[in-house]
Amino acid sequence: MWNQGCSHSIVGTSSYKAAPSKKAHLEIFPCTVSQLLAAAQLSNDCFTICNCELKQVSVVGIIRGFAPFVTNVQYSVDDMTGPPLNVKRWVNVEDCSLMTIAFPGTYAKVIGSLHSYSQGQRSLLAMDIRCIKDLNEISSHMLEVVQAHMKLFGKVFDVNMNTTVVPEPNWSSGMHPQGVLPNGLSTVQGQ
């Protein structure tokens, strides 16, 4: 259910920039909760998806739980791709008036870094939590997730979600995978 009940929001913008090479990482990697929970763990605070190190990630979901403490606020964020993810936001007494408080039932975008704590439980250490005011942001985030995933894996999907590996030579020479048009669409999608 759509709920716009958010208190004060932090001023500022968050965006991600695609790096020029395939081997480089995105500054803020858009992902789903299930991708974070399935990410390979190299060390206590180092995770990778498809050999790309996750430094900062963004997740969009509905707040299922909210627990304020003296030093932090803990949330449970659910994007319905897996079990809810624990999110922790440290509280600074001086910045309390600027902090976003997202209540259960509210959609929010969380930007932070993934950490693993005792018993292997993963949690997102939030640097920014912003309430979503337009439902198009949810669709936009999911499209960003798909685009980032496709760039990392270097694959094109046909209309039936079958994968076709994209060849490294540039497509301007006329080389395209069978059934894939120059714009990346399958022949059925092109029609």
UniProtKB/TrEMBL annotation:
Keywords: DNA-binding, Nucleus. It is found in: Nucleus. Its main location: nucleus. CDD domains: RPA2_DBD_D. InterPro entries: NA-bd_OB-fold (IPR012340), RFA2-like (IPR040260). PANTHER family: REPLICATION PROTEIN A-RELATED, REPLICATION PROTEIN A2. This is Replication protein A 32 kDa subunit.
